[in-house]
Amino acid sequence: MSTIRVQTTQNVSLEYEVASVGERMLAAIIDNLILIAWVGAWVLLIALFELKGTVATVFGVVLVGLPFIFYHLACEVFFNGQSLGKKARHIKVIRLDGTRPGLGDYLLRWVLRIVDTGIMSGLIAIIVILANGRGQRLGDLAAGTSVVNTRPRQSGGALAPAITPDDYVVVFPQAVQLADHDVATIRQLLYKSLEYDNYLLLNEVANKVKTLTNIQTELPDEAFLRTILRDHAHLAVAQG
Known about the structure:
This protein is α+β, with helices and mostly antiparallel strands. Helices cover 58% and strands 9% of the residues. It has two domains: 3-149, no CATH class; 173-239. It has helices at residues 21-48, 53-78, 84-89, 103-116, 123-132, 138-143, 180-195, 199-213, 221-239, and strands spanning 3-7, 13-18, 91-95, 145-149. The protein has nine helices and four strands; from the N terminus they run ββαααβαααβααα.
């Protein structure tokens, strides 16, 4: 499985596992099934109530057409880079500079979806993704985004200690102040908050760690906590 290294604006390097073409296809199938079910349900209701003329047209456009057209854009904007299909497959959209994608990024991906998936049944998207090796279709290349796997990469599971290379550079040396049980709690809360999309909890944990260590940083909460875990693991090995 290929990975990408994201260099944040705070010069912190983060590594993500690129979502495979297979995972993205499964996510797309789930999204399409949801859209088909939505359209089918409203068409059935319109037929059941025998709506005709202007009323049927208004219902068709507002309740069927608009959700079908704007589904992916709305989902990614309001669900932090995930459609319902992506959420089910544990993949999401990120920016390659480590910042959170904005409305403009999602708009670019949405507009270029017409080329990526609307022509040749998605073959263009598949070819581009396989060719660049960074999980990017044309929309991602234009927006500076990628689609990555949100599942933990450690072989020991979500709560396994982080493993760092010998040449790893510690970002926050204050991480040494944290006790082992503190780090275990941070790791558990981090993955629980990501699993349930609980970004309030994620923010609370990050703020608590910053208070304990007197760290001041503009890193996003998830990136900060992942960095703290890696720093602590590396420092523990170096001191051991």
